[in-house]
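If your schedule permits, I should be very grateful for your opinion on a structural question. Thank you for your consideration; the sequence and its C-alpha cells are set out here:

===
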Amino acid sequence: MNGQEGDCDVYGDISNRTNMERAEDDNIDANAQVGVNINKNIRHTPQQIQKLENFFMECCHPSTEERSKLGQELNLETNQITYWFRNKRAKMKAHEERHENFDLRQENDILRRELEQLKEQLMLCTCTICGGPTYIGLVQQLQEENATLKQQINWAKILLRSLIQIPDSPYVAQPSSSLLLELANDSMNEFIMMGQPNSSLWKIDPTSRKETLDYEEYDRIFINGLVKPCGYVMEASRETGLVFMDCLAIVETLTTNKWINVFEPVVSVASARTLILTSGRGPIIGSLLIEAGFHVISPLVPKRRVKFLRYCKMLKEGLWVVVDFSLPEEPHKLLSDGSSNRLPSGLIIEDMANGYSKVTWIEHTQYERSKIPPLYQLLIGSGIGLGAKRWLTTLQRHCENLWNLSNINLAGVYQENKGQNMRMMSRKNVNVLGESTGIVLSAATSVRFPVNQKTMFDFLNDKKFRSQWDILTDEASIEETTKIQKSRTHNNYVSLLKIFGSSLSVLKETWNDASGALLVFAPLSLDSVEKLMRGEASYSVPILPSGFSIVPDGVETNGGGCLLTIG
C-alpha cells in the first residue's frame, strides 16, 4: 500500500466483515487482559510492513498459528496482526470495486452512444415495399394506446366484479342479490312478452310454416346487455303443449336437482347451487345458479356448455314462470372455453285444473356455429336439436312415464308371439355398480339416411329385420316375452327379447316422438334375468347398453331424411 494507510492498525468497525473475522474479534476480546490500554493508532516500521505485505501476497487469511508466529517475528501482538490483515483486505476490496465501477461506467457510455446511433439510423430507415419513411413513432403511440386500453379493461373488470361480486372461480361465486334481482326481473319481463300468444316478436316462416323469432323486432325492443361474440349465431324457438302433471309439481321439478334426471336425454352434465332471493313484488320460491352441458346424442356434436341463473316466480294463482338467463360475460371468455349465452328461456306454466298443465316453452340461445359439423347444422339451426320442441316432448314423455309407473300392475304386462366420423373410447371399471368390471370399449358414429325418422324407427324396431343388423341374433328366432308400456303418446316401451338357441336375452327400451327417437338394447344373461324376476336390486346386474338415436336432418323438402347415431 502507498502512503500512510498501511502503517498503522485502526481499531473499530469495518464494513463487510465476514463471520470468520467476527469470530476472530470475539477471541481477541476474550483473551485481552483487563486494564490494558491500547492506543488506537500504532505506527509500524517499514520492515514490519514489508514482511506483512509479502505474507499477504501468499495468504490473505492467515490462521491463528500463522498470526502468532508473525507476531513473534515482527515483535507485534496477535490482535495487531489480525487487524492489519483485516484492514488490508477491506482496502483491496474497495480498490477492486472502484476499478469495476469505472469499467462499468465506460461500458455504459459506449452502449449509450451505440443506442443514440441506432435511433438516428431508425429515423432514416425507409420501407422496403413502398420506399417511404417508416413510422416508428406511430408504432410507439399505438403501443401506448394499447397499454392504456388494457388498463381501462382491467378497471372495468374490477368494477363489474365488485358489482356482481363474482370471483374468478365459478364454484365460490357470491353474486349480489340486488343486482341479480334486477337482472332476473328484466329477463322475466322480456320472457313474458315473448310468451304472449299473439306477440309481434314471432312470425310464421313461409317455407317451413314454423314459428320463428323476428330478430329485427327483437333488437328494437330489447337490450339485454349480452354481447354476441364474433362467429356466434342466435337460435330461438317456441312450442306449446299439454303436460300430464299439475303446475306446482312441474315448478318443484325444475327448481331442484330433479330436473337433471328429468331431462337426462338433453342434459349430459350439470351442477347447481341454490340462491335465495327476496323481493316484495310477489312470492319467489328461489333460484338456482346452474352450469350445464346440453347435447345431441351424437359423437360429432360437442356439448353446448352454458352457465345461467334459473329464476322462478308465481304471477298469479295457477300461473308460474320459470326463466333461465346467462349473466354478462366478457366475449373473449366465451370464445376461449366455447360456452354459449342463454338468453331469456324457459317455460310459462298454466294449471288447467284437471291434472294437466299448459306449458309454453321458449328456447333462445347464442352459440358458436363453427363448432357444429355441417351434417348437423340444419338440425341445430332449425331448433329441433336443442330447441323448445325437444325440451317440451322430453317433459311430456317423463310425466306420462311417471303416471304409468304409478298405475302399473302385472295384469297390464302382456306376452306376444365411414372412419373419420367414428369416435372411440376405452375406460376401466373397478367396482362400479351396474357395470361390468374390466376394460370397456365404446364406439359411436353418425350418418345420414335419405328416409324419414318414422321409416328408420320402424325398420330398427321390427324384430323381423333385426337379424339384418344385429350380430347377436344373426339368423336365430326372436320372441318378445315381456312388454311394458311407459307412455301412450310417445311409443315408449320396455321389452324383454328371448333369443332361441342362445343363453342371452335382450332388454330393450324405445321411444319415438317429434323431438326424435331412441332405441336402446342391453344383453342380459339368464342368471341376470332370474335375479330381476326375484326382485333383487337392479344395480346388482351389470349391463352394457348399445343402440340408435334418430333425429330429423332439418331438410323440409321431399319428406326429409334422418340422422342416425349408432353407439
Notes: The two ends are 92 Å apart (CA to CA). Residues 1-39, 165-174, 278-284, 408-419 have pLDDT under 50 and may be disordered.
